[in-house]
Amino acid sequence: MPDRHKESCPPSESLPTHKIDMAGGSLFEVPGVRGRMERLEFPSGLTLYRLEFEALEDCALQMQGRFDEPWIGSAFHIQGRSKMVLPNGQSHRLDPEVALLMRVDSSGTCFHLKAGELVRHIGAATTLKALSQRYGGTLPEDLGDFMSAYGSACHISAVSPSSRLRNLASLLFTPQTDGSCRNLMLEGYAGVFLAETIERHCSEPEPRPVFALWEEQALADLLQWIKRSLAQPLSVPALAEKAGLKDSRLDQLFRHTLDKSCAEFIRHERMDLAHTLLRDGNHPVKAVAARSGYNHVSNFSRAYKAHFGETPARTLRRAQTGR
């Protein structure tokens, strides 16, 4: 993954900082931040973190670690943006377009937030000992950077989240059951979520196909047209015809240029537009659904909740009331 996800943290940057113990849980309230964290430990050695917090001011949340042996974890923001600043001064962006595979032994990792930012975050972690058992005793060589002795390890790998990883994150944040099988399902999802992140890290990049200049220009023109036409019906065959390409070639262009299929790109653009309109607080859900290309509010609500972990009505209500 390119280094554009890694930044150098300006030493002069100073924000109000609030500490949160990752070994704790439930509701937390600190000056300038309102939110909730849930930590679930499973018999398999997996730990699941689910955080939802809203910044009431520009601030930083400092997370206190809980592992005392070598470990590995994944982190992903379903919604919202933050800058994760490590104890060694490096920083990485976190948003819905990047997932992190990480190991940071020292406490003190900070999430820098802008006032008004609402973050929904999923994390899954396990010790290397427990993970090694799942691999039959030998971890993949591609995880070598994460295997150092416990103490000062500080390693981050940014990966592009697959559709499967996004879906797993949504399932972890809004589980489909509250019954007796809830924890069993969450443990399964958490394991696959971590495995998917590891797989994205370990997978060798596919050779980039050669595209003609006119194909790349056709894609650039099509992207702009799609962004202006989200309220219209948008099918891959129709878009391919508009670009003068075969369906499969258009999808290949999307995947190797944006790491998304054409359909995924359209869905994400529609959700981003809907989120922007709802957070404005001046557009009813039905109107937002129409402008986002949905003829039925029920279909729009399901897609929005799957993407952001909450209903569009809740986003609108929070924008209108400030809560």
UniProtKB/TrEMBL annotation:
It comes from the Bacteria. It holds the Pfam family HTH_18. Keywords: DNA-binding, Transcription, Transcription regulation. One of its GO terms (biological process) is positive regulation of metabolic process. One of its GO terms (molecular function) is sequence-specific DNA binding. Residues 220-318 form the HTH araC/xylS-type domain. InterPro entries: Homeodomain-like_sf, HTH_AraC, HTH_AraC-typ_CS, PchR_regulatory_protein. This is AraC-type DNA-binding protein. It comes from Marinobacter mobilis.
